[in-house]
Amino acid sequence: MMPLHKTITIADVLDWKEGEYRCVAEVDGFPPKALHHMLFLKGPPKVQLSEQFLFDADSVTLACRVQHRSERVKVHWYHNGHRVDIEPGVHLQQPELDVVGDHQPHYAVRDERMSRWEIVSRLTILRFTDADFGTYNCTARNEHGVVSDQREITLNVVDSLRKIF
After folding, report:
1. What does the pLDDT read at residue 32?
2. What residues does the Ig-like domain cover (predicted)?
3. What are the structural domains, with CATH classification, of the chain?
């Protein structure tokens, strides 16, 4: 319990201190009154590219989990340092799936919102070929910074996936 007219200062704010804070005033004979305050932290997104790949026939899917504290977060994929651009107007027959490429798309990107502050972006490499081996990078940016994570797809990775399926 704090005395009248006191404030609380939250020092060294870390992730775990984010959330709701309540101030409750209680006086005998009266119902308690409460004020609610939300503490939001500003900062760049957090990115985690899964170490597991989903292999389906000739396609490989990579998943990237992005946690952010901004309404305006952008997620981009790169292969061997080159951005995998999404071309407008090219889609597969699935909702929320944007396809990159020409009439026979080679990449598909699907962003799924898990919560207000979390997105899972999936890059699917359709008709996987030798040219698709290499380094894949998932990059997320907001007004506070840019963060990325990357994984290598090698012949050993694909061969082990083919043995499983």
Report:
1. 93
2. 45-154
3. 46-164 (2.60.40.10)
